[in-house]
Design goal:
This protein is α+β, with helices and mostly antiparallel strands. The chain contains five helices and ten strands.
C-alpha cells in the first residue's frame, strides 16, 4: 500500500509540473532558443542558426510596422506601431515617414542578426572544439535581401577547420527563409501612398483585387488609423499607423 501511495504521489507531482510548464509557455509565449545540437556540417549549422534569428527579427518587426524598436509610434493593443505616414496637424494629408521602407527593413534585420550570427560562429567553434577540431575565422561580411516570399541572407567568412593534419576551408554561407515580409511591406507602402494623396485607402476594393490579403482598419480618437494587413497563406500580420487629414475634436 505504501509503494502504491508513493507512486501515486510521484505521478501527481509529474502531472503538476507538466501543467505548470504548459501554462508558462502559453501565457509568456516562451520560445526555445537556438542551441547547438549534432552538427552535420558547418554550413548547415550556420544556415540554420541564421534562419532562426531572421525569423525572430521578423516576428518582432511585423506587428510594429517593420521595425525592431519603433521610435515614432502609436500604441495600439499594447503594441508600439511605427507611423508610416504622418501629419501632426489637422486637415492636411500625411507625409510618408519611410519612403524607403524595404531598405530600412533590410537594415533592421541585418543589425539585429549580426551579433547573433557572430554568436552562431562562436557556438560552432565551441562544439567542434569538443571534438578536437580547431577553427580559425576571417572577417565576416553579412548582407540581407528581401525578395518575394523570402528573405535571403548571404555571409562571406573565411573559415579554416583543421584536425589531425586534415584541413577544410569554407567561405560562403547562404540561406533563404520563407517570409511574406516583402509583400506585406509593399501593401503598407500602397496604403501610405493613397493616404498621402487622397486621405483615404479603399482597402475593401484592394482585397477584391488581391484576395491573398486580409486588411482591417481601426481609427483611434486622435484620427490615427491602424491598418492590419494579413497574408492569408502564412497567417502573418503587419501593422502600420497612419495619421493625416485629421479633424479636430468637437468638429
Amino acid at each position: 500500500m505504501q509503494n502504491k501511495k508513493g507512486q501515486m504521489i510521484i505521478w501527481v507531482i509529474v502531472a503538476i509540473a507538466i501543467v505548470v510548464t504548459i501554462v508558462i509557455l502559453f501565457f509568456f509565449k516562451i520560445k526555445p532558443s537556438f542551441l547547438p545540437q549534432q552538427i552535420s556540417s558547418p554550413e548547415a549549422f550556420i544556415q540554420k542558426c541564421a534562419g532562426y534569428n531572421v525569423l525572430e527579427a521578423v516576428d518582432k518587426m511585423m506587428p510594429q510596422g517593420g521595425f525592431v524598436n519603433p521610435e515614432n509610434y502609436k500604441v495600439y493593443q499594447n503594441t508600439k506601431i511605427e507611423y508610416l505616414c504622418q501629419n501632426l496637424g489637422n486637415y492636411l494629408s500625411c507625409i510618408n515617414q519611410h519612403p524607403a521602407l524595404l531598405n530600412e527593413e533590410k537594415e533592421e534585420i541585418k543589425n539585429y542578426i549580426s551579433p547573433k550570427i557572430e554568436k552562431c560562429f562562436n557556438d560552432l567553434r565551441d562544439e567542434l572544439g569538443k571534438k578536437g577540431e580547431n577553427i580559425v575565422y576571417g572577417k565576416m561580411n553579412l548582407d540581407v535581401f528581401l525578395a518575394p516570399r523570402r528573405i535571403i541572407v548571404e555571409i562571406e567568412r573565411e573559415t579554416t577547420i583543421s584536425k589531425s593534419g586534415e584541413i577544410n576551408r569554407f567561405n560562403n554561407y547562404k540561406t533563404e527563409i520563407e517570409s511574406p515580409l516583402y509583400e506585406l511591406a509593399n501593401v503598407a507602402n500602397e496604403i501610405a501612398s493613397n493616404e498621402a494623396k487622397y486621405c483615404y485607402f479603399e482597402y475593401v476594393g484592394y482585397m477584391i483585387l488581391y484576395p491573398e490579403f486580409d486588411i482591417r482598419k481601426f481609427t483611434m480618437s486622435d484620427s490615427t488609423k491602424i491598418y492590419t494587413i494579413e497574408d492569408k497563406e502564412s497567417g502573418k500580420k503587419f501593422n502600420t499607423a497612419i495619421r493625416g487629414c485629421a479633424i479636430p475634436a468637437g468638429i
